[in-house]
Write a structure and sequence with these properties.
This protein is of the alpha/beta class. It folds into two domains: 224 residues, NAD(P)-binding Rossmann-like Domain (Rossmann fold); 95 residues, UDP-galactose 4-epimerase, domain 1, CATH 3.90.25. The chain has eleven helices and 14 strands. Strands 1-4-3-2-5-6-7-11 form an eight-stranded mixed β-sheet, with helices on both faces. Strands 8, 10, 12 and 14 form a four-stranded mixed β-sheet that branches. Strands 9-13 form a two-stranded parallel ribbon. β2, α2 and β3 form a beta-alpha-beta unit. It is globular and about 55 Å long.
């Protein structure tokens, strides 16, 4: 289903999985499951045999990312009546909550929107989950909760100090999940994941132009120089350093968390999801230009964006010990898969 068609789906309506029985048993509700990350999580869980149903308002998600594999209900996480009905009718016993607004700079300009969607939305999901006696909850958090940590590697014991409203909403979200789980029989895992890139399949590629990799793709496919937001940070080359992780690894981490919660005694964890390898923005762009065959383009440096810390790199020992999970993909495979997806999904982009 194309985006234009997806936009015509009435809010609150259900799009059943191809060939699926209307009353098939479903275990996991994935909110935001038609988004870039959400669709990867849904695909990984469905392929692993987990029962999945999706709720997405399609504000940034695409119905065709699901490809008829799972039932989709179009609606908002702020709609308590819709959530209650969906949880009850589908027999949901676990929630993977991914739906959220996630742009740091935008959150600085529009904090009320971010608190409404990310905090009030989460509260509404949790209220419905408690009423429906949902037992398991996976919360997609973010490394943004750490802010600008003055450490080489961030551990789960690093003091959270978010520097943007986005990061604040994720930290408040973790507190809210923890508090609800302490008062009700819900076990939870919060996943603090770092900078996501890549695509498991071309049709699942990130087509937004808010994260570094697709931002560079958009520039170079129109012959423009990629942009670096500030080169005066306290780092070896002056540009921000991040821990980049393949979206397929993010998806497998959600699956590992879901299975951990279903095992006897599993739950109540907050863990980093990263590779533990720092890559500067300039290094990342240089690698993208090499893979795309555009070494002739020189990055353009402009002013810093608000809310960007100098260095945030994960230490991922806890998730390895608790869930038996570790990242499998390297930086090059992230960029190559993302580039293939971008070109496949943007056939009319100008070019090479």
């Amino acid at each position: 289903m194309a985006d234009g068609a997806a936009g015509k789906i009435a809010p609150g309506s259900a799009v059943p999985a191809a060939g699926a029985c209307r009353f098939a048993a479903v275990t996991w509700l994935v909110t935001g499951g038609a988004g870039y990350i959400g669709a990867h999580v849904v695909s990984a869980m469905a392929q692993a045999g987990e029962g999945v149903v999706v709720l997405d308002d399609l504000s940034s998600g695409r119905a065709n990312r699901l490809d008829g594999a799972v039932p989709l209900t179009v609606g908002s996480v702020l709609d308590a009546d819709l959530l209650s009905r969906l949880l009850r009718e589908r027999g949901v016993t676990g929630v993977v909550h991914i739906a959220a607004k996630k742009q740091v700079a935008e959150s600085v300009a529009h904090p009320l929107d971010y608190y409404r969607e990310n905090v009030t939305g989460l509260q509404t999901v949790l209220e419905s989950a408690v009423a429906a006696e949902v037992q398991h909850f996976v919360f997609s958090s973010s490394a943004a909760v750490y802010g600008a940590p003055d450490v080489a590697e961030v551990t789960e014991q690093t003091e959270p100090a978010p520097v943007s409203p986005y990061g604040e909403t994720k930290l408040v979200g973790e507190w809210l999940v923890r508090s609800v789980a302490a008062a009700h029989p819900i076990r939870h895992v919060s996943l603090r994941y770092f900078n996501v890139a890549g695509a498991a399949r071309p049709e699942l590629a990130d087509l937004g132009v808010f994260n570094l990799v697709p931002m560079v793709f958009e520039r170079i496919t129109t012959g423009k120089a990629p942009v670096i937001f500030g080169d005066d940070y306290d780092t070896p080359d002056g540009t921000c350093i991040r821990d980049y992780i393949h979206v397929a690894d993010i998806a497998s981490a959600h699956l590992a968390a879901a299975r951990y919660l279903r095992a006897a005694g599993g739950g109540n964890l907050v863990v980093n999801v990263g590779r533990g390898e720092g890559v500067s923005v300039r290094q990342m762009i240089d690698t993208i230009l090499e893979i795309a065959g555009r070494r002739d383009l020189r990055p353009q440096v402009i002013g810093r964006r608000p809310g960007d810390p100098a260095r945030v790199v994960a230490r991922a020992d806890c998730i390895r010990a608790a869930l038996g999970w570790s990242a499998r993909h390297d930086l090059r495979s992230m960029i190559e898969s993302a580039w293939e997806g971008w070109r496949r999904m943007n056939p009319d982009a100008g070019c090479l």
